[in-house]
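Reviewers of the previous submission asked for a worked example of the structure-prediction workflow described in the proposal, so we include one complete record here. The input consisted solely of the amino acid sequence. No template or homolog information was supplied to the procedure at any stage.
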Amino acid sequence: MLAYRAFKNLLVAASLLAGVALPAQAVDVVIGRATEQSALDPQYAQFTPDVSTADNIFERVVTASPSLKLGPGLAVSWRLVDPTTWELKLRPGVRWHDGSPFTAEDVAFSLKRAHFIPNSPAPVAAYVSAVKDTEAVDDLTLRVHTVTPAPLLIEQIGQIFIIPAKLGASVTTEDFNSGRAVIGTGPYRFRSRLPGDSVVVQANPDYWGEKPKFGTVTLKFISNDTARSAALLSGQVDVIEQIPPTDVPALSSRPGITLFPAVSMRIVYLALDSARDVSPFVTDKDGRPMQANPLRDRRVRLALSMMINRDAIVDRVLGGAGVAAGQTEPEGFGGHDPNLRPVYDPVGARKLLAEAGYPNGFGLTVHGSNNRFPKDSEVTQALGQMFTRGGLRINAVEVLPYNVYAGQATQRKLSAFVFSYGNTTNNALLGLSALLHTYDAQAGLGQLNRVRYSNPKLDEMLERASAEFDETRRNALLAAAADEAMHDGALMPLYWQKLYWGSRKGFIVTPDQGERTSALFIAPEK
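From that input alone, the workflow returned the following structure tokens.
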């Protein structure tokens, strides 16, 4: 670690020699992250690790506070010109890290590029699905024309990181990963990347907003929970994320260590391959492949959900670091239905299986990640045990590193798998549309619908909600859509996460309900 910090100091010295001035007596910070971003391309994937890295370097037209409240970002104001036209006034005096001015053409370019990023495991296209075209009225005025009325357009396009138009349509994700294209407007400039190990960024002295709090920020990737906690205790890192519940009591009692908890908006769920006639990891009770996929039957999906004791997962596996869920949106968010509660009924589950024609169950392999969120491997194992008690033959429980696992899930190579979605807005529209709308790549809908679930009734509800300007009516439509999805067994919500960040003396963390871990939410202790 001494050599690592020496490497940081060399970077700082090199930047000074190059004429880049750092804040006087700048403090440095090393952040221990659980998961590395899948790419440095800020539009490649909407995974939280990707957003957490991009947040330091790039910006969006709006900002999201730790409580997910929207505010001005690269846009200072916006207004509805007519039902299908929004006008954004952009922030003056903003410059890219290479010194060139930020203009409306950059936003127009970014929104257009976001429609299709090749090989993305979690496309951002849903956020721009309503955009028909854009019009740069002048350097700091952009008009966005939508396909249909889009009352939540600013929330949606506000998820897209803005990149320079001069990069051109041919810019690739590899151009970003190599560092060549990593040019943002944010408080920190990209300095280096060591794949599998770290990303280093340095203060942008010309930043338009509040001056960066740190001179150099190192994002250090430590996937092992125990190793990450040990790094904090030893002083190798200054801040860590995703403290496992089992470590909370010990860390909270250590002098010089402070923990910062928050219940996030991330829903952890089980996805079931319900669209295909044959599913790769479904067998009969003797382990032989089946030619008729039982997961296509609504009764089977509901039976599996009823086998899951969500309270036991939260209490025994997570040590209380979660909230059992019966839908995708927590209480207080638009689209939450108070009548949708978790149902644990193993007797009723067996009756449904028998009714569907599987009185003796069938075989299934359950997949999950082992380094994406706290206790993800253990949660997957617990589900396998619950399904076994429910009468299924669990052929295997397989957990994989997230960078491998996410690709397999997206490529539809799995039958039953644990995944998660972190909402970044205060209502269910984006989440439900991305997770459960019928997949339509051209329209940017169902981009996270990895099992290709399709329900025309649900689609119609979501499309009506997306065009509804009245918030009360929109939320009622979203609640009805949630009810339809849950009673159809579209997916199996498990729990909302409760997360812990930790810091050593000298650093303060503001927990983010969107789960971002970046220098934006860390400050030196005064």
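The longest helix spans residues 471-487. We consider this example representative of the routine output the project will generate in years two and three.
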